[in-house]
UniProtKB/TrEMBL annotation:
Protein name stated in the entry: S26 family signal peptidase
SUPFAM superfamilies: LexA/Signal peptidase (SSF51306)
Biased composition (Acidic residues): 31-40
Renumbered residue ranges of the record's region Disordered: 1-55
GO terms for cellular component: membrane
Originating organism: Natrialba swarupiae
C-alpha cells in the first residue's frame, strides 16, 4: 500500500546525512585557522633547521678546507676567523689612508707639547706627502705654504697660518723626525736673521752669532708653536735650514686622544726592552706596520723626546 503511513527509506537517509554533515561542519568551523604569519614562522623554522644542519654537516673531506673554514661553527675556528676579518678590515683602511696620503706611515701620534695648544700630547695626526693638497701660496718648487705666505692669504693649519711639516733634522736618517711649522723660506746666502726673523725669537742676535746664518742652502726656517725660538737658532730641533728634500710630509688633520694608544704601547714595550735614549726636541710618535705590534697598524714608529724632537724606534 502506498500513502502517508508507508515508510520512505530514501527520505530518512537524506535527513540523516544532512544532520551528520551539519555536525561535521560545525566541528570544522570550531578549529582555528592557520594565519599567514604562522605559516611564515613555520617555514622560517624549517629553513633555519635546514641551514643549521647544513652548516654542522660541513666537513673538510666533503667540502674542502676553504669552505669548511668559512662555514664551520667550531668555536676555535670562529675565533680565528673573526681575528682575520678584523685584521683585513684594518689593512684595507690602512691602504686607503696610504692612497690618500702618499706616504707611509700616514698617521703620527704626538707625544710632547712643542706644538701646543694647536697639537696636544696624545693627538693622532694624519699626514700627507707635501705635494698633495697644495695651497695657492706654496713656495715655488714645493707643496709647503709658510706662515709668512699664509698670513698674506687664507691658508691656515692648526690654528695659525702656514703648514706644519714633518722633516728630518739636518737631513739625517739617524736623527729623530720633527713636526713643526714652516715659518718662512730663505735663499742660499740670505741673512735671514736681519731680513725675516722676528725679534721675539732671535732677540738681539746678529747673523754672525747664529750658526745657520747666512743660509747655507735654500730651505725653510721652522719653529714649534710653543717653543721660544726658531729650530735654526735656539729652538728645540737644533737643525740647519730645512731643505725641501728633508721634508717627509705635512700635517692635515688631528684626532684628540687616539694617539695615547700608540704611546701606551711604546711605554709598555719600552719598559720590556729597557729605557730608550732621548734627544732634545719636539713631540711626535708614529706607527703603521712598524714591526713592533699589530696594534700599531696605521700609526708610524717614532717617539717624541724633550721639547721638539721625536725618536724613531
Amino acid at each position: 500500500m502506498s500513502g502517508p503511513h508507508s515508510g520512505d527509506p530514501g527520505g530518512d537517509s537524506d535527513d540523516g546525512d544532512s544532520g551528520w554533515n551539519s555536525r561535521n561542519s560545525t566541528r570544522n568551523d570550531d578549529r582555528p585557522e592557520e594565519s599567514d604569519d604562522d605559516a611564515v614562522a613555520n617555514e622560517s623554522a624549517v629553513a633555519d633547521a635546514s641551514t643549521e644542519n647544513a652548516t654542522s654537516d660541513v666537513t673538510i673531506e666533503d667540502d674542502g678546507i676553504v669552505r669548511w673554514f668559512l662555514g664551520t661553527e667550531d668555536g676555535t675556528v670562529v675565533f680565528v676567523r673573526d681575528i682575520l676579518s678584523s685584521v683585513a678590515i684594518v689593512a684595507v683602511i690602512a691602504l686607503i689612508l696610504f692612497g690618500i696620503s702618499g706616504i707611509w706611515p700616514p698617521l703620527v701620534a704626538v707625544e710632547s707639547g712643542s706644538m701646543e695648544p694647536n697639537m696636544e700630547r696624545g693627538d693622532l695626526v694624519f699626514v700627507v706627502d707635501d705635494d698633495r693638497f697644495v695651497g695657492d701660496e706654496a713656495v715655488d718648487g714645493t707643496g709647503v705654504v709658510t706662515l709668512e705666505n699664509g698670513e698674506n692669504g687664507d691658508h691656515e693649519k692648526f690654528g695659525q697660518a702656514g703648514d706644519v711639516i714633518v722633516f728630518k733634522p739636518d737631513g739625517s736618517d739617524h736623527r729623530t723626525p720633527i713636526i713643526h711649522r714652516a715659518h718662512f723660506w730663505v735663499d742660499e746666502g740670505e741673512n735671514w736673521v736681519d731680513t725675516k726673523a722676528e725679534d721675539e725669537y732671535v732677540g738681539d742676535a746678529t747673523c754672525a752669532e747664529v750658526p745657520t746664518c747666512p743660509a747655507p742652502h735654500d730651505g725653510f726656517v721652522t719653529k714649534g708653536d710653543a717653543n721660544s725660538g726658531y729650530d735654526q737658532y735656539r729652538g728645540g730641533a737644533q737643525t740647519d735650514v730645512v731643505s725641501p728634500d728633508w721634508v717627509t710630509g705635512k700635517a692635515m688633520i688631528r684626532v684628540p686622544w687616539l694617539g695615547h694608544v700608540r704611546l701606551f704601547f711604546d711605554s709598555l714595550f719600552g719598559a720590556m726592552v729597557g729605557p730608550v735614549p732621548h734627544g732634545a726636541g719636539s713631540g711626535l710618535a708614529s706607527s703603521l706596520l712598524d714591526g713592533s705590534t699589530a696594534a700599531h697598524v696605521g700609526v708610524g714608529a717614532v717617539v717624541a723626546s724633550g721639547d721638539g724632537l721625536v725618536r724613531r724606534r
